Amino acid sequence: MLLRKVKQRALKAIGEDFRLVDFSFALPYTYVLIEGRRRALGVAMTLPEEVGRYRSSIEEPSLEAFIERADSINVIERTLGMAAINALSQYYLDLSGAPDKDVVELLGENPKVVAVIGNMPPVVSGLRRRGFEVLVFERNPKLWDRDTLSDALEYDLLPEADAVVVSGSAVINGSIDMILERSKKARALILTGPTAQLHPDFLRGSGVTHLASMSVTNVERALLKLKLGSFRGFEGESRKYVLEVEP
Questions:
Q1: Confidence of residue 232 (pLDDT cuts 50, 70, 90)
Q2: Which of 83, 137, 191, 201 is least enclosed by beta carbons within 10 angstroms?
Q3: Hey, which residues does 138 pair with through a beta bridge?
Q4: What class does CATH assign to 103-214?
Q5: Average pLDDT in the 67-96 region?
Q6: Is the model's pLDDT at 25 over the cut of 90?
Q7: How many CB atoms lie under 10 A from the CB of residue 126?
Q8: pLDDT tier at 97 (50, 70, 90 boundaries)?
Q9: Domain boundaries, the chain
Q10: How many other CB atoms are there within 10 angstroms of residue 111's CB atom?
Q11: CA dihedral for 59, 32, 83, 247, sign (positive or negative)
Q12: Which fold has domain 2-92?
């Protein structure tokens, strides 16, 4: 299970006593804010359709407690765990040389069939404008449009894809392992979106080739926008980046 491996690597990476400044299981993003020599904010897409009972076993919140439950079957604990891992990742990441690109630029001209896991309209429209055949899969029916395929078809169709663009929420909903297994033909497998704030070392050898995510540039303003439930407002306080993952 990829998330379990990520959890174990994240716990080993903790090299100092972090203070848990703030956290919330919230819409549109769950967030965790930690402080060491500086502050770092990690987020994870909240998936309300995945939530059963609104209950968590965490009684004494801490960075370690959240990360320990990142592979829980309870989606609340998994989401808080993912946000905590992302906060730790953002704290340790050196993004000084990371290019400011989006997914469409990253793919170049080579792929013919691109699978997009999670209906991301800006990404999908950008890929189609460049002439790629795009297969769009989505689990949440509320996000379907006329050209969207059910995620139940991923198992059969992913082996046809030359490149796969995956929303970071696939790590939270547990579908990432199947996606990786069925995407062996793909020359590029890109984990993208705010939930993909992971440190590339945590994904080394997984089959993920790139991370295309966002780094918060103004923590206080981004945190305010998150508390106000602003999707675009949070993104306005962040910058895009791309990192390669070692095979």
A1: confident
A2: 201
A3: 150
A4: alpha beta
A5: 96
A6: yes
A7: 17
A8: confident
A9: 2-92, 103-214
A10: 21
A11: negative
A12: Enolase-like; domain 1 (3.30.390)
